[in-house]
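Whiteboard transcription, Tuesday session. T.W. wrote the structure tokens on the left side:
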């Protein structure tokens, strides 16, 4: 594959062995969706496909293993530890680099930020973030159709992102989970950019 010396079959075999079946199917769907979105918005399709494949590489690692990798190899902020469900993002970027030899910073950053996002995401980071949320294999069809409609509008990428953040915030509130301040900040920035 382009951007790694590892073949696609070796990558999918590794994912199949390290993810549960639903997460594996989700990763394949995210890769295809990322490729489609990259084609639509003028980004590198091969790069998007690889980022989509690897975005959840560490998702099924035990929490203790993720924390051990973070403590030994990564530098993440304390607030990123608030919700263990987001720890897989920086660890998946680490796996992409250490296991699969990915050195492309755009791929690594998109994987790193695909769950929380960040302020002023690049086009490529937005594509991977959205592909994770709207891939057709495991995501709710009525939700994904709404996002796809938004993508057709003027400023569609940001409108789609904003809708994803609305859903995330509602879900966190409904489950009595903490909301990362970064999530609120990104939501507010997207609101401002769309109003302008």
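and on the right, the sequence the group agreed on:
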């Amino acid at each position: 594959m382009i951007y790694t010396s590892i073949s696609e079959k070796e990558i999918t075999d590794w994912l199949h062995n390290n993810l549960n079946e639903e997460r594996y199917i989700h990763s394949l769907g995210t890769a295809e969706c990322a490729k489609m979105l990259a084609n639509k918005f003028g980004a590198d399709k091969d790069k998007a496909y690889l980022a989509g494949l690897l975005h959840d590489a560490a998702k099924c690692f035990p929490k203790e293993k993720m924390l051990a990798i973070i403590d030994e190899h990564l530098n993440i902020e304390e607030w990123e530890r608030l919700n263990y469900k987001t720890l897989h993002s920086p660890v998946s970027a680490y796996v992409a680099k250490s296991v699969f030899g990915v050195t492309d910073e755009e791929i690594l950053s998109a994987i790193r930020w695909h769950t929380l996002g960040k302020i002023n995401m690049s086009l490529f980071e937005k594509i991977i973030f959205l592909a994770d949320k709207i891939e057709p294999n495991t995501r709710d069809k009525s939700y994904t159709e709404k996002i796809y409609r938004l993508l057709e509008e003027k400023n569609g990428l940001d409108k789609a992102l904003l809708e994803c953040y609305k859903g995330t915030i509602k879900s966190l509130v409904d489950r009595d989970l903490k909301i990362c301040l970064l999530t609120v900040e990104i939501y507010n920035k997207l609101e401002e950019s769309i109003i302008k």
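Someone added at the bottom: Residues 21-41 form the longest helix (21 residues).
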